[in-house]
Design brief:
The complex is a heterodimer of chains A (75) and B (296). By secondary structure, chain A is mainly alpha-helical. Chain A has one domain (3-74): F1FO ATP Synthase (Up-down Bundle), CATH 1.20.20.10. Helix content of chain A is 91%, strand content 0%. Chain A has two helices and no strands. In chain A, helix 1 runs antiparallel to helix 2. The longest helix of chain A has 37 residues, at 3-39. The radius of gyration of chain A is 17 Å and the shape is elongated. Chain B is mainly alpha-helical and 296 residues long. Chain B has one domain (59-292). The chains are: A mainly alpha (75), B mainly alpha (296). Chains A and B meet through helix 2 of A and helix 2, helix 8 and helix 9 of B.
């Protein structure tokens, strides 16, 4: 296999792995938030705000990985 | 409605395709695809008005300043950045004037006032507290400006200013200055940097913590930059790729499927545009809160 082909493969696998991690993290986060607002509907607003902040931080890390993969793919 | 909206992306694909092939015949098809995509996503000196042609924006010779060469020519993103600034200031100044004449909100004034109250009560209050209300004008400006920039990219022929990493880096730099300024104004210069290390930790960890916290100051605006840029660019790449499938397979048969998916992503982009403006605002507010309340 050509080195260039390997680089494309690495970019694809890297992008996919980053998405798997982010999906797992945000999924767990949302599940916990839903459970908490189900138990105590009065704190739903506060919990949602914390959820959005945490989700944004997880997403940020994922996007670093995705940007690196894109750079690898288009170089 | 749908083909008219998506025509922008199809036309961009077509117009980018012809010069790319004429200039240099690509070795294999994937490279050609990359060139079109980069050309579509990157900034340029021409303003495309697709069915009617393109306008070449005026270019100025680069300026030498403190040993750096700065090119101050107009670019596509800059034009739409100015357009966004013009729309935001015009709309908000008109509404603020009307508010002074007549206190009872009417029409668009209602929408803007809902957003203002939301930013004050749901974004600033939980993150900074009552003393954060003095940051309300800054955060509202950030919110409305980013929202307008994000939504401008969805208009056919327009570019997304926030899809350019230099623009988001500039926004994050302003946010960084405000965050550090808020912390230093509250605690004083020495007090602020001393407060970076949480009290009550073992002495031998303090140097490590100080370095980590100091780097942490710079990763926050960097994360803001990349998040906004990547979110705005990703949506355009997905729409571009979905419409590009028609040209990749060289058949009209895939068109209904790819147009339907692209339309779905297009509507999701409207939602993402609003959410990203909200996230940029709430994270800036949160970081201001962290700088002001160092004891947490």
């Amino acid at each position: 296999m050509l080195p260039q082909g390997l680089a494309y493969l690495a970019a694809g696998i890297g992008a996919a792995l980053a998405v798997v991690g982010a999906a797992f993290g945000i999924g767990k986060l949302t599940a916990a938030t839903m459970e908490a607002s189900g138990r105590q509907p009065e704190i739903a607003g506060d919990v949602r705000t914390s959820m959005i902040i945490s989700a944004a931080l997880i997403e940020g890390v994922t996007l670093f990985a995705e940007v690196i993969c894109i750079i690898l793919a288009i170089k | 409605m749908a083909p008219a909206l998506l025509g922008h992306h199809v036309l961009a694909f077509l117009s980018a395709a012809s010069p790319g092939q004429a200039a240099a015949a690509p070795a294999h098809s994937t490279e050609g695809g990359n060139n079109w995509m980069i050309e579509y996503l990157s900034d340029s000196h021409t303003l495309e008005i697709q069915p009617f042609g393109a306008i070449d924006l005026p270019q100025f010779p680069p300026v030498r300043f403190l040993g750096m060469t700065i090119d101050l020519s107009l670019t596509k993103d800059l034009v739409f950045l100015w357009l966004a600034a013009f729309i935001v200031s015009l709309a908000l100044i008109l509404i603020a004037r009307r508010k002074q004449r007549n206190l009872v909100p009417r029409g668009w004034q209602n929408v803007i006032e809902v957003v203002i109250v939301f930013v004050r009560d749901e974004i600033i209050m939980p993150t900074v507290g009552r003393e954060g209300v003095k940051f309300l004008p800054f955060l509202l400006t950030v919110f409305f400006f980013i929202l307008t920039c994000n939504l401008l990219g969805l208009v056919p022929n327009f570019s997304t200013p926030t899809g350019n990493i230099n623009v988001t880096a500039g926004l994050a730099l302003i946010a960084f200055i405000v965050i550090q300024g808020a912390g230093i104004a509250k605690h004083g210069l020495a007090g602020y940097f001393r407060g970076l290390v949480p009290p009550g930790i073992p002495v031998f960890i303090i140097p490590v913590m100080a370095v980590v916290e100091f780097i942490g100051l710079f990763t926050k605006p960097f994360a803001l930059t990349v998040r906004l840029f990547a979110n705005m660019t990703a949506g355009h790449i997905v729409i571009f790729s979905l419409v590009g499938l028609i040209f990749l397979f060289k058949t009209v048969a895939v068109a209904p499927v790819s147009i339907a998916f692209a339309l779905f992503i297009y509507f999701m982009e409207i939602m993402i545009g609003v959410i990203q403006a909200y996230i940029f605002t709430i994270l800036t507010s949160l970081f201001i809160g962290l700088a002001v309340h160092q004891e947490h």
